[in-house]
Write a structure and sequence with these properties.
Blueprint (H helix, E strand, L loop, with lengths): L2 E4 L4 E4 L2 E4 L9 E6 L4 E5 L5 E3 L6 H9 L12 H24 L4 H5 L1 H13 L6 H10 L3 H35 L6 H5 L4
Antiparallel strand pairs: 1-2, 1-4, 2-3, 4-5, 5-6
Helix pairs in contact: 2-6, 4-6, 5-6
Organism: Nitrosovibrio tenuis
Protein name: DUF4376 domain-containing protein
Length: about 200
Amino acid sequence: MRMTIIREDGIVGVDGIFRRIDLSALQTDIRAVQWNGVSGHIEYDTAANTPLESIADFQSFIDAWMAAAPRSPAPPPPAPSELKAAALSRINAAYQAAANAMTNEYPEEEIGSWAKQEAEARAWLRDPGTATPWMDAAAAGRGITKAQLAAKIIDNINLYAPAHGALTGKRQKLRDQIAALGDDPTQAQLDAIQW
């Protein structure tokens, strides 16, 4: 770190950045102090320059220089619309985590076939003559009858649908509570709405 103190100008520079600092505590016959990071010197008004081996005696001026640094203004508080968006995002993330927990034992590809499985199983149960290419292949691959597979599909749907519906209803209820706060909710009001 390089440092310069110039009493007459009332400035301290650190690494080339100068700031006006109160130098009234500086010894009155010191005109300037120069430090290059390793060594330096003190310049006097009426005496010869003297070498400087340490800047420890001038640390208070460096501290004052640091304290005089311009402060970044505090960021403006988030707008109410941003607070609401963050609360909705928090609720949606909790919903997604709960929904994922219900299906974490299934690969995505299988989950993607659930609508097809349900449609074929319900159609076949209504009319056993209905073409069911997905179920035919799955039953053969699994080594069970089409009737057994249809029963398993419907049993799983009957377990999953109400649980998923409850999760979705909860998310929608919390979303409605956030909307009911109007256009200017407080953070505390939004924080009170938890999954």
